[in-house]
Here is the input.
Amino acid sequence: MASSLRDELASLKIERPGRSPVERPRRGPREPSLGAEYRRRGGGALRLLSWALWLIPLGIIGGAGFYGYKQYDQIRAKPEVTVGLVQKMTTGEAEKLLTAKGYLKSQKQAMIGTKVAGRVDQMLVKEHDHVEGGALLAVIEHHDLDAMIEQREASLERARAELEEAKAEGWQKEREEQRAERLLSKHMVPQEDFDKAKASNAMTQAKIKGLGASIRVMEANIKEMKSTLRYQMEIRAPFSGTVVEKQGEVGEIISPMAMSSSLGRSAVVTIADLQHMDVETDISENLMSRIELGQPAEVSVSANPSRRYQGRLRQIIPMGDRTRGTVKVKVEITDPDDKLFPELAATVHFLPFKAGEQSEANKSFVFVSKSAVFQENGHDYVWVVDRKSRVARRPVEVATTREDLARVETGLEPGENVVLNPTKALKDNEAVRIAE
Here is the structure.
């Protein structure tokens, strides 16, 4: 039955009108029509558009993948390291037991004024002048005092002349008493004449003593006025030093009770002994065990950063500050120069006692924490951290090591960061996370 159905299907044919069922069209070479050409070109554009549509999601997926990788790279676990700074300092700074900041003070410094109010008549000094003890700095007007001294001296001359006259009279009265005494002994004059001559002589001698006392009083008054002229009207330096400030000018009123410029000035100049300078600083109470009197120190002054000064702990003030928990100390500078002035900011590095050793005060070296240096195959290395928080191993040449610092001759520059206590797992160009 199946074979008969297959035969029937094979015998079926489609007859088209006007064409014999047995005729087959004879086709020559097929020429493409305009519609076919348009469909061919349109198909290529559709294929390009299809590719473009596929590229858009692929680009989005690729960008998302790159962004995700960057985020993962940021949040993935990185080695945490502690870094230290490479510093350039002197050996004294490297040896320091304690560092404190303070200000320069002169051991002798004074504002020089007058005991009485007056107007400045002469100014004989200016800033930076060096003056010796007792040198005249300024003169206060004293014309009235000069006139009084001249009057007292004239009165003194008159009193001296009166004294000479009294002495001459006294000599005469003494002779008269002696003559009356001789005549009385011979009973040539009565007793009353002798008594009269004796009394007259005694009065004359008393007058002489009174005139002598008056002269001494006048001399003392004149000496007092001259002392007033010297020590009140003439302002002098109480000690040798340098004029660091000139407050008064010619014509200004100087008053010891002046509280403001409208009432006048209270001082003419300020003098300081710049050859004996101290650094006044405060030390915390819990660090006082690190210092003691006579301890050497190294002083750096902000106004002269290229110089390091030697010093010693001269004084510990025996009074604490309960509000700040500090004690004031004074460090004497043993080698001052002309660049040190009062009130300049200074830093003191307290050094350990060392017999016969002097710190290289003005020579600086590169120092790094000793915990940053490690050895491999007999050579010294450090891990340097760059600005992108990536580490690189770098060979260094270590000259000397101290308790916690190593002096580096080559391989490092001041300001670079190095890894402290590095682990063996670090790798070159590896990103790290810096511990806070």
Q: What stands out?
A: Residues 18-25 have pLDDT under 50 and may be disordered. The longest strand covers residues 304-321. Residues 141-232 form one domain. The chain has four domains: 80-92+363-434, 97-107+273-350, 110-135+237-272, 141-232.
